[in-house]
Amino acid sequence: MENYIKTVLYAYPLLKTVEEDYAEHIKNKAILSYDSRWDAERLTEYLAEEILSKNHLIWLRSMVDKVMDRLSETERALLSIRYFGKARSARTFSLQGKEGSVAVWSERTYFRKQQRLGEKVAAMLRVSGVTKEVFDRDFSRLDIFKKIHRFVEEGRDRIIAADETRRLHKRV
Predict the structure, then answer these.
(1) In this predicted model, what pLDDT tens digit does every residue of 12-56 receive, in sequence order?
(2) C-alpha neighbours within 13 Å on the C-beta side of residue 112
(3) In sequence order, what are the residues at sequence separation of 6 or more whose Cβ sits closer than 8 angstroms to the Cβ of residue 130?
(4) Strands of the chain, DSSP E
């Protein structure tokens, strides 16, 4: 899966809060404009850029929401485990030999399902318009995406995948 898709998925749970934060920031900046060190033209440009960024975030969240709505409950739970930090979702899955779970999969099967799901979600997002070009143009400059993208580019997201094995073995 491409790194920008991983970045979008890791950022997804934060998008609603980020949208609200942008709206509050824009409102505050406009209200306090009388005390700004910027001239009116520069402040207006800045606020317009922030409004565009907020609208892009709303669009992105809606595209990911649409993809999520088309996934099965199991697929959404798998994404939650990998990308949304939902360790509790891992309780619905189990490796061989564990009892009291909905699905009993071997570790190998679990990771294959994650791999196939990642490819499926990436394709669905691209078809929805979340392309590398759109990501680079509209999101890559935003702080939240910069940090997550750097995390993924450095390969530190692989630690999360390795940690899944530990979580899978611990539950029940």
Answers:
(1) 999 989 888 988 999 998 888 888 888 889 999 999 999 999 999
(2) 5
(3) 5, 8, 60, 63, 64
(4) 93-94, 103-104
